[in-house]
Amino acid sequence: MLLLLLLxxxxxxxxxxxxxxYDSALKILHQNSIQLSDLTHLDAHDLRxxxxxxxxxxxxxxxxxxxxDFTFVVSHFNSSRQWGKCLNIVIKYxxxxxxxxxxxxxxxxxxxxxxxxxxxxxPTPELPINVQWELINQNLVEQIMTRYxxxxxxxxxxxxxxxxLNIHIQEPGNHGSIITRGxxxxxxxxxxNNFQYDCTKQTGPTAV
Length: 208
Description:
By secondary structure, this protein is α+β, with helices and mostly antiparallel strands. The protein is built from 5 helices and 6 strands, in the order αααββααββββ. The strands form 2 sheets. It has a 4-stranded antiparallel sheet with strand order 1-2-3-6, covered by helices on one side. It has a two-stranded antiparallel sheet with strand order 4-5. Helix 1 (21-31) packs across helix 3 and helix 4 runs antiparallel to helix 5 (133-147). The two termini are 40 Å apart.
């Protein structure tokens, strides 16, 4: 599938010889506004058309063969959105674990993404208090994919919202949004009994 013909195409003239083939391949992809997540839609002929030589194509193939998945959770988060909501946020991503020549940054620090999720869980000037969860989740995934475009190949984000019945809004039943980008199974945690308590009214040992 992904890059299966890499070993059977003739090499092009070498380029970017002063850097590692993987790093120089990423630079060429970036120059053509192509992210790692787009590689699943490209074959060897497409990569040759981008002037990637055989060493660069092989480097990409090796890195794609070493992908890893990681998951983190923001649990029972008390959001002031939509006049008070208790949220669970579950994010799963697929990434390149070892950028060649940058061994000091082998793994991504999920805490930065978690901070991004917490920030958007509260109203912002761009996404005010009454914005739909689908739009919030879409913005979160786009921000993550853009910020980590040289490391991530896929992201799936789930925002679970506890039911709420008040004078401002009537929302019976737990509900939420799932947004997935790239080649990864969508995050799908249980929707029944997924909240241990209403975090808009009380705190607990698993808060945030």
